[in-house]
Amino acid sequence: MNFATIQNFPANFLIFIIPHQDKFKIHFMSKRELRKYLKELTKVQLEDQIIDLYERFKPVKEYYDFAFNPKENELIEQCRFQISKEYYPIGSRKAKMRRSVAQKWIKKLMLFDADASLLADVMFFNIEIALSFSGEHIIRQESFFTSMYKSFDETLRFVSEKGILAEFKGRIEKIAGDTCDQKWPNSNAFEDLADMYLE
């Protein structure tokens, strides 16, 4: 029986590739099955398997590197820098304004179980730097405004669920106000969403 994992599958599933006649049958492994499987391993086998995963898969390596030496502030600064480059690239490159870049870094912080307030700071920064850029440039892509609203919605939901919404009240109000001042086409939606969470 060969052990394998695929990065795009849900985190609570591992996969066994099981020979089945002339084909391979994929079995999705639940947490209970995983615990049973791990209990059957010796300490050395478990260590070897973890080391193998560490060497094979970058997300696993990053997770253990962070767990062993958690430098949250450095990681936060790296996130902010990478997000800012989407709007203010180094040199003469054109701004790409990709929401996916911010989402990638935010998901990484979530995976590493970063402090909720630090994570929320990055989530708000993603919207604030987009507002800063739009205040200096004409943006015609409707998708830009739609994606920023989605980010705002996700951010407010996150701080509300974590019980830290009050910490960011001023930034929430400013973001909603700035979208109105800049006449974003969906500024009313930003204001309504802010009001809903702050009331």
Short key terms for the protein model shown above:
elongated, disordered N terminus, 63% helix, mainly alpha, three-stranded antiparallel beta sheet, 199 residues, 3 strands
Counted up, domains total: 2
The radius of gyration over CA amounts to 21 Å
Task: Give the averaged pLDDT, no decimals.
Answer: 82
Query: How much helical structure, as a percent, in the residues?
Result: 55-70%
Structure summary, number of beta strands: 3
Task: Give me the side-by-side strand order of the main sheet.
Answer: 1-2-3
What proportion strand? Answer: 5-15%
The span between the termini is 57 Å
What coarse outline follows from CA principal-axis ratios? Answer: elongated
The run of helices and strands is: EEEHHHHHHHHH
For the biggest sheet, the summary is:
3 strands, antiparallel
Low-confidence stretches: 1-18
- Enumerate how many helices there are, as a single number: 9
Structural class, by secondary structure, is mainly alpha
